[in-house]
UniProtKB/TrEMBL annotation:
It comes from Paenibacillus cookii. It catalyses: ATP + protein L-histidine = ADP + protein N-phospho-L-histidine. It is an enzyme of class 2 (transferase). Pfam families: HAMP, HATPase_c, HisKA. Keywords: ATP-binding, Cell membrane, Kinase, Membrane, Nucleotide-binding, Phosphoprotein, Transferase, Transmembrane, Transmembrane helix, Two-component regulatory system. Its EC number is 2.7.13.3. Signal peptide: none annotated. This is histidine kinase. Its main location: membrane.
Length: 369
């Protein structure tokens, strides 16, 4: 019976269609059995017509047989309906629920039915996928926060150690008046310098905390208008540092759907970083392809060292040299965070002809012309 019913392609039928099919088959089978039972009862009545005990018992037996037939038919059809239509998807969903309860999201809900249970399994798989993505994002955020706290604690350790040493020095020699006024003023100025340094670090940490709360407001923007704004900003930053600027662009769509303010903030940080290290020229390239807006900023400076390529996107990282002074080393880290909020990313590399090159990508949700 199960093999016969499977030929109806039950997976492609809705629950209502399958229910109607099963009931039609059930009624056909029960009515056929009842017809045979009527014939059986008629023959029994004829056979026991002259029997001493009579044939009065035939009618109750016939009624009992009919009720038994109806009951057995219901049980069989219900069992087949459960086995062929419900058992497999319910097992799949139960197994998925147990894995989710155990915080195991590394699986897939697979059921190829076209009915409501198939839709439910696909919805469950969509929910599992979203939970997995959210869990990974949360885990990545926690890891980044732990890493940021470790870097922050490491960078604060030096000024705190220096201040502790000066406090111990002052506490030991000031009561004995073994410190000259000039030395005392020098010590106080040094301590003030380190206090200002710690204040800057705290302000930097606060600014990083606020990055997570920045909303992404995408809107339709003409690609030419966006690149024009980027070029104007780039020429201003490059001119302020005494550098020249040039750009090129390529796009498979005249419009993009991005947060222009967020993209501009990332670009300004990339330009400021390039302007510090460029010898005299900064180049930018704007590309729209495959649903992504990609902005690359390169310079003709010394490029990234091997260490910088590994740590350039970390917070508070500053390379050696005079160009690195005067900033907290947060520019590229901020760019990286903002790009990820826009479903993109940031990558640092060295150009084929030398010089540093930073590429930012944003999910642009392309709009056809």
């Amino acid at each position: 019976m199960a093999k016969i019913l499977s030929r109806f392609r039950l997976k492609n039928m809705s629950m209502l269609q399958t229910f109607i099919l099963f009931h039609c088959l059930y009624l056909a089978a029960v009515l056929t059995a009842i017809v045979f039972e009527f014939d059986w009862a008629a023959r029994l009545q004829l056979h026991f017509a002259g029997h001493p005990y009579g044939n009065d018992w035939v009618l109750p037996a016939q009624i009992a047989a009919m009720l038994l037939t109806v009951g057995i038919g219901l049980v069989i059809m219900g069992s087949l309906f459960y086995r062929l239509k419900l058992k497999k998807p319910l097992d799949v969903l139960m197994s998925a629920s147990e894995k989710i309860s155990a915080n195991d999201l590394g699986f897939h809900v697979v059921y190829d039915g076209k009915d409501e249970m198939g839709e439910l399994c696909r919805a469950f798989e969509k929910m599992r996928s979203q939970m997995e993505n959210n869990f990974k994002a949360l885990w990545r955020s926690v890891e980044e926060r732990n890493q940021l706290n470790a870097i922050f604690a490491h960078d604060l350790r030096t000024p705190l150690s220096v201040m502790k040493g000066y406090v111990e020095f002052t506490a030991a020699y000031l009561p004995q008046k073994k410190i000259s006024e000039e030395k005392l003023l020098e010590t106080m100025q040094t301590m003030q310098t380190h206090i200002l340094r710690m204040e800057r670090y705290v302000e930097a940490m606060n600014s990083i905390q606020k990055l997570e709360d920045i909303p992404v407001n995408r809107r339709e923007t003409a690609f030419a208008l966006l690149t024009g704004q980027l070029d104007d900003t780039a020429r201003r930053i490059a001119g302020h540092h005494g550098k020249t600027f040039g750009s090129r662009q390529a796009a498979d769509s005249a419009k993009v759907f991005v947060d222009t303010d967020l993209a501009m903030q990332v670009f300004e940080n990339m330009m400021a970083n390039a302007a510090r290290y460029a010898a005299g020229r900064i180049e930018a390239e704007y590309v729209v392809a495959n649903g992504m807006l990609t902005i690359t900023v390169g310079d003709d400076g010394p490029g990234f060292s091997d260490e910088a390529l590994q740590k350039a996107l970390l917070p508070f990282y500053r390379s050696e040299g005079p160009e690195a002074s005067g900033h907290q080393g947060l520019g590229l880290y901020i760019c990286s965070v903002l790009c990820r909020k826009h479903q993109g990313g940031l990558r640092a590399a060295n150009g084929p002809l030398g010089g540093g090159m930073v590429t930012a990508s944003f999910y642009a949700e392309l709009i056809n012309r």
